[in-house]
Design a protein that fits this description.
- It is built from 15 helices and 15 strands.
- The strands form three sheets. The protein has a nine-stranded mixed beta sheet with strand order 7-6-2-8-9-13-12-11-10, with helices on both faces.
- The longest helix is centred in the C-terminal third of the chain and has 25 residues.
- The termini are far apart.
- The model has no long low-confidence stretch (mean pLDDT 90).
Length: 470
């Protein structure tokens, strides 16, 4: 008696042949984003001083090829062969030795190069937000619904002797970059504004580093969002964890007229303060989301009037939150009577406590942004010198910017605007296609059977229509 076959896969004959197929055809979305935002042109102008007059490969093209490589899944410079084998889609790509020489040249003048790249990114960002129209992150920015910049640091371990790599507080060895990401809210992901590379032993609560990164982040925003004197406005909110809750940083944010929501370290007599709140029955249920009701087992209250804040900036408020830990969670020394206690400081003069607390809690999205950046090159520093790895951070930002702008312009409110790099590669960038010539034009035929072929085509059309309408 024969047994039925439970499943089977075809076993075709396999060989190697010249075919018109194109790999990573969906990356046409990224190349179109380069053209639409003018990033290629801006970066070429910015890096002209570091490119020899008769050079075959411009420094700007080398950096953009590296950024494109990171977006489609590469990790190091030699992975540019993923692009080099498709000149019809990505153009001529420099060899690995040429890339190495270019990075060495740029690293020799790293501060000026980083500033030039930042100027090009700023110009392209303004253009991208203009093309996005009402879907731009800044379209509805106001004091009530500010543009949120999240600051957070992360540890990157390295496995060889890199310049300025050092032991970390988690007993690793590597770097401790401090990052600033623009939060696109629930409608999308986010985009990097600044990544400052630091040695692994850099402090977490260093106010000067937070100020430097915030300055760099603000410089990436369109001038219309800042005051005439160059300072910020309440349309911009700086959001950090407890590492940013230092007097020096909050003083600076106040002088810059910026809104802030930063983690706050409570004093030793906090249990006494909490008991006073209990007696006054001053706890308010925390929100799970603004639309879906309260969060079970969580409450918020204001501590401002119970604390001595005379040495802190005027207008600062401290809001405390208590929540039942999740089952199995280990209690911390700061917990009180079985409740997890956290607090944050803000200069928001009005707003319901649960709303302000929910806004601060959404700072956790920055961890997603960092995770995505690690998936596009931040996880590995393949170069030796500190200056070279600073340039590598700029390449990571270029890659992340390209993806964020592509999603913002091409997908508006579609689900694909929220997709992370792994899903973008699987569903969009690796879509099969053929490239043919027809009537003196190149035509990229996306495979009709691919699940997201229509998504890619719609995205490309939106990018090109947006340019035509401006």
């Amino acid at each position: 008696m024969s047994h039925p076959t439970l499943f089977s896969y075809p076993r075709p004959r396999v060989d190697i042949s010249e075919v018109p197929a194109v790999s990573h055809a969906g990356a046409v979305l990224l190349t179109d984003t380069l053209h639409s935002t003018g990033l290629a042109h801006s970066l070429r102008e910015a890096l002209d001083p570091w490119t020899k007059p008769l050079a075959e490969h411009h420094a700007a093209k080398v950096l953009l090829d590296l950024a494109m490589t990171l977006t489609v899944g590469g990790e190091v410079a030699r992975d540019t062969d993923l692009l080099r084998c498709e000149p019809g889609l990505f153009g001529p790509v420099a060899s690995a030795p040429t890339i190495s020489r270019t990075l060495t040249t740029l690293a020799e003048d790293a501060p000026a190069v980083i500033e030039a790249i930042s100027r090009a990114r700023r110009a392209a960002r303004e253009r991208a937000w203009t093309l996005a129209g009402d879907h731009s992150p800044a379209a509805q920015a106001s004091a009530k619904a500010p543009l949120v910049i999240d600051l957070d640091a992360t540890l990157i371990n390295v496995h060889s002797e890199k310049e300025q790599a050092a032991p970390t507080f988690k007993r690793g060895f590597g770097y401790h970059p401090l990052c600033a990401f623009l939060d696109h809210g629930q409608a999308g992901t986010g985009e990097p504004l600044a990544i400052a590379l630091r040695p692994g032993n850099a402090g977490s609560n260093t106010a000067s580093d937070h100020i430097t990164v915030t300055r760099q982040a603000l410089a990436q925003l369109p001038p219309a969002l800042r005051a005439r004197d160059g300072r910020g406005s309440k349309k911009i909110l700086i959001r950090t964890d407890g590492a940013g809750g230092t007097k020096g940083f909050i003083d600076w944010l106040t002088t810059q007229r910026l809104g802030y929501s930063v983690g706050f370290t409570l004093p030793a007599h906090t249990p006494d303060l909490l008991e006073r709140i209990d007696r006054a029955d001053a706890w308010t249920p925390a929100y799970d989301t603004e639309d879906d009701g309260i969060r079970d087992g969580a409450w918020v209250a204001e501590l401002t009037g119970l604390l001595d804040l005379t040495s802190w900036p005027e207008g600062m408020r401290v809001i405390v939150r208590k929540e039942r830990p999740h089952p199995g969670a280990q209690l911390r020394i700061t917990d009180h009577e079985g409740m997890r206690i956290t607090a944050f400081a803000t200069n928001a003069p009005r707003g319901q406590l649960p709303v302000l607390e929910l806004r601060h809690r959404r700072r956790a999205r920055c961890e997603d942004r960092i995770r995505n950046a690690k998936d596009m090159g931040l996880m590995k520093f393949p170069l030796q010198s500190f200056a070279q790895n600073q340039v590598w951070c700029q390449i990571v930002q270029l890659a992340s910017d390209l993806v964020a702008w592509m999603q913002t312009i091409a997908f508006t409110s579609d689900d694909a605007r929220k997709w992370e790099p792994k899903r973008l590669r699987a569903r969009l960038f690796e879509i099969p296609a053929t490239l043919v010539r027809r009537c003196r034009h190149k035509v990229l035929h996306l495979a009709r059977h691919a699940p997201e072929a229509l998504t890619v085509l719609t995205g490309v059309n939106r990018l090109r229509i947006a340019v035509a309408q401006t």
